[in-house]
Fold each of these.
Amino acid sequence: MSLKSELYRDMSFSSDVKKELCTIEHSSDCCQRAEAYGILYYGRAFGKEEISLTTDYDYVAERYISAISYLSTYTPEMIVSKSGKITINVDSYEARMEILNELGYSGNERTMRLLTTNIENECCFGAFIRGVFLACGIITDPKIEYHLEFDVAFRTKSRDLIDMFEDFPVTPKQSDRNGVNIIYFKDSSQIEDILTVMDAQMSVMELIGEKILKDVRNNVNRKVNCDSANLRKTALAAATQTEAIEKLKSQGKFDDLPADIKELAQLRIDNPEMTLAELGASLSKPLSRSGVNHKLKKLTDMTK
Ligand SMILES: [Zn+2]
C-alpha cells in the first residue's frame, strides 16, 4: 500500500490532534479571534454568497459554530449527511455580512486575501494556525510517516498561508493534488514545531515518544548488524589460522615451534570461537590482543 493511501486510510491521529485542539481554552480575545478567522477563512467557503465548513468531526463542527457565534449574533446548525459528514452553513445573508464586516471585508472583494489585522499580536499566530488546521489540516500517524498538510482550494489563499510561515523557522513545501493546493511538512521536528505552536501538547508528546521508539529500534538494529559482522570477521580469521596450523602439523613443523607459539596454536584449534583478546587472556602467560595477533600472523606467514 502506498503512503498516500495510508494517509487517507488512517485518520486516527488527525482526529486525536483535532480533538485535543478543540479542548484548548482561549487565553485571550485576540487569540480567540485569530483562531475563529483561521477556521472560517480556510473553511469550505468564505464570502458573501456562502460561509460554510464540512468536517468528519462533531467537535470541529462545534468549534466552528462557536467561532461564528463569537464574531456575530448568529448561531448556525449542524447538518449531518447519511455518510456522517457534517456541514455547517451560515444560511442568512445578514449573518454572512456581519461576519465579513467584523473581519474587515466588504463582501465585494474580487479576490479574497488574508487580512493580517485579524492576527493582531505575536501570541495570535499559533491560534490562527490552529483554526486553519481544524478547517483543512491532516496529520499522518507518526508510526507510519511524518506528514502534516493543509489542503487549500484556492491558490491565493494557499499563497497567503505560505506567507504566514515566513517568520516561522519552518518553510513548508507545496504541491498540487487534483486541483487542490497542498502545503505540507515532512520533517519530524517541523511537525513538532507546528503542533507546539498550535498548543497541542499531548500530541507533541506522542510524536516525540514515537520518535524515541524509532531511534531505539534503529540503534538496536545497527548494533545487531555490527555484532554479526564482527562475529563473521572473527570466524573467518579463526578458520584461516586453524588451516595454517593444520598445515604446519602435516608438514611436521609444528613440534619445532617455540613453546609459547605452540600453546597459542593449540588454544586456537581447540577454541575457534574465541576472539583474539579471549585467546590472549587464556594463555599461561597472558598476552594483549595485538600480541596474539602478531604471533598468529607469524604462524600463518610460515605456511606461505
Ligand atoms: Zn493573541
Amino acid sequence: MRKTVIVGGGITGLATALYLHEHAANAVSYTLLESSTRWGGKMLTTHQDGFLAEGGPDSFLAQKPEMLELCRRLGLEDELIGSNTTKGPSTFVLSKNKLHAMPEGMMLMAPTMIMPFLRTRLISWWGKLRMGLEIFVPKPKEVTDESLGSFVRRRLGKEALDKIAAPLMAGIHSADPERLSLRSTFPIFSEMEKTHGSLLRAMTKKKKKQPAGKSPMFLSFKDGIETLSQAIVKRLDPNALRLNCGVHSVTGGSSQFCVELNDGSRLYADDVIFATPAYVTARLLRDLDPSLAASLNEIPYASTATVSLGYKRSEIGAQLNGFGFVVPSQEGRKINACSWSSQKFSFRAPEDGVLLRAFLGGACAPGLAEHDEQTLLALARYELQEIMGITATPILTKVSRWIKGNPQYEVGHAERVAEIAHILTFHPGLHLAGSAYSGSGMPDCIQSGVRAASAVISRKTSEEIHRNVETAALAGQA
Ligand SMILES: Cc1cc2nc3c(=O)[nH]c(=O)nc-3n(C[C@H](O)[C@H](O)[C@H](O)COP(=O)(O)OP(=O)(O)OC[C@H]3O[C@@H](n4cnc5c(N)ncnc54)[C@H](O)[C@@H]3O)c2cc1C
C-alpha cells in the first residue's frame, strides 16, 4: 500500500482525500494533516441568534459542474439553495455617494442589452458612446498577456474600467485590475476578441444562443457553506484525519518523503500533496528545493476582511432591493463592497432580521485588513452609515480576517505556474493543489484536488505496470 500525506484541510485537501478514499482505498492510504483546530479552511459558517454568517465563501457559480457533481456524490442535492431572484437589478455601484443600479445585461464589464445601458445614469453619455465604439476597436496583432485594466481601457474606455470592471474586481476578487492577468482570470474575453474582433459582437451572438428563462447564477447550502466540508469529513476514514497537526517541513525525495510535524514527529510518504497557500508550501519545501520555493513565493497574496452585521429589519431605513453594491476606488471609501446576504439567499437571517456583509482590504488597500477586529467593525459601520444611512446598532457582528488569504493572478501568472510545473517534473511524488494556480473559486480548488489525487493514483498504476513488465521480463530471462 502506497502512502500519501495531504497537507492542509481546506476544501482542496478535503476533496483530494475524498477522491483517494473513493477511488483508491485498496491501493493508496492517505493521511490528511491540518494545522488548525477545524476542517474547512476558508469555509467558515457561524450560526447565531437565527443569523447565518459566512466568514469566507458564501456561494459558488451554478455553472461549475465539479461542485454539483461533488454535492451529488455526497447526497447534498436537497441541501442546495439558489440565489433569490430580484424584480429589478441585483447589483448597485456607488457613484458620487449614490447607489446606481448596474445596468441589466452587463457581462462583467460589457453591456449585452441596449436599453438598460442607455438609461443608466452611472455612465456618462461620453462613456456610453466610448463603450459602444468597442466594435470598431481593432484587435492587437500579437496576443500577449495583459492586465485586465489595460484590456478594458483599450476596448471599452476608462469609464467602463473605473465604474464597472475595477469595482467588481476589487469587490469580488479583492484584486487590482491594473495587475490582474487577463489570460489567467478571464481568458474568455481575450478569446472573444480573438474570435469575433469585439466583445459586444461576441456577447450579442452568445446571448442569442442562450435558452430563455432565468436559473440562479449562484448556489449555496441552506445551512451554510460548511455543510460541504462537514459532509466530506463524515465520509473520510477518521483514523486518517489529524487536526492540530501543522507540518514543519518536507524533505527527502528520491523514493520517499519525510514529513516533519511541528511537534517534531515524522511521517514517511511516497507522495505528498500540498493543499496549502503557495507561500506556505514554499516554506515547507525550501530545504527540499529552494528554486521551487522561490517560484512559489512569487505568487502574491492580498489580505481581506469580511464584516457581517445583523440588524432588526425595522431598524434599518434602507430599501434592500437587490443583492448588494460595489464601490469604485475613486469614491475614497474603506469598504470595497457590501453583500445584502439575507436578500441574496434565504435562511440567512431571522424573519424580522437583515444580514449584511461588508468587504475590506484587498490588493488596492494593502494593510487595511490587518487592523484589529474592533477597528474593522467600526470602519464597516461608519461606511454603511454614510452610504446606506444605517445608524442602528447591529445585533450580530462577526469579523473574519484573511491575512494573505487571496492569491493574486497577476500578469505573467500562467508562465509562473508553468515554471512551477516544470520544476515539479524533477520531483515525482510531489503534487500541488489549491487556489494559487489555476482558479481560486471553490469548484476550481476541488478540481485541482481531484487532479492531484488522480496523479497519485496513475503514478501508482504506472509504477505497478512498470514493475509487472520488469518481473515478466526477468521471468522470461529465467
Ligand atoms: C473572503 C473570501 C470570500 C470568498 N468567496 C468565495 C465564494 O463566494 N465562492 C468561491 O467559490 N470561492 C470564494 N472564495 C475563494 C475560496 O474560498 C478559496 O479559494 C478556497 O476556499 C481555498 O481553499 P483551499 O483548501 O485551497 O485553501 P484554505 O481554505 O486556505 O485551506 C488551507 C488549509 O491549510 C492549512 N494549513 C496551513 N498551513 C499548514 C501547515 N503548515 N500544516 C498543515 N496545515 C496547514 C490551513 O489551516 C487551512 O485550513 C473566497 C475567499 C475568501 C477569502
Amino acid sequence: MTRIRQALISDLDKIYKLEQECFISPWTMELLLLDIFGSEFNVYYVIEDEDGVFGYIGLNTILDEAHIRKLCIAEEKRRKGHATALLQFAEKKMAENGMYALTLEVREHNQPAIRLYESFGFTPEGIRKDYYGNGEGAVIMWKRDIQCRKS
Ligand SMILES: CC(C)(COP(=O)(O)OP(=O)(O)OC[C@H]1O[C@@H](n2cnc3c(N)ncnc32)[C@H](O)[C@@H]1OP(=O)(O)O)[C@@H](O)C(=O)NCCC(=O)NCCS
C-alpha cells in the first residue's frame, strides 16, 4: 500500500539517492538539506510503500502561489500514477493553506514531465530561454484557481 507524508530528516539519504538517479543536474546533499528543511516556505512530501520511499515532490510558497521545485519517481515505479498522486496530494495541501495557483519550470525536452503536467491541468505560458545553461529552455507552466476547483 502506498502512503504520502511530509518528508523527515531520516528520508534525506533516500531523497538524495533518488535525486542522483532521476535528474540530469542533481542537487548536492547540502542543497537538498537546505531546501527541504532550511526554509519555512518550503515543504517536501514523499511517497512510500512497503519497500520504502520511492518518490518525492518539493514546493516553495510565495504569497498565495506554490512553485513546484522537484518531482520524481524511481524508474521502476513509473507509469503507475504515483506522480499524479503526489501532485493531487500537494495541490490539496496547498489549497488548504490558501494557495490559489501552482507553477513550475520544466526542461523543454522533458516530454514525460510535460505530458504529466498537462494531464494534470497545467498549461504552458512561456519559455525561459537557455534556462539550464546548455541551450535548453524551460517551459513555464501554471495551474490556476486551485481553490475554485476544490469548491
Ligand atoms: C515525470 C515523472 C515524475 C512521471 O512520473 P510517473 O509516476 O511515471 O507519472 P504518472 O504515472 O503519474 O503519469 C501520469 C501521466 O503523465 C504522462 N506521462 C508520464 N510519463 C510519461 C512518459 N514517459 N511518456 C509519455 N507520457 C508520460 C501520461 O499521460 C501519464 O498517464 P498514462 O500513464 O495513463 O498514459 C517521472 O518520469 C520522473 O521522475 N522523471 C524524472 C524526473 C523528472 O523529470 N521530473 C520532473 C521535473 S520538472
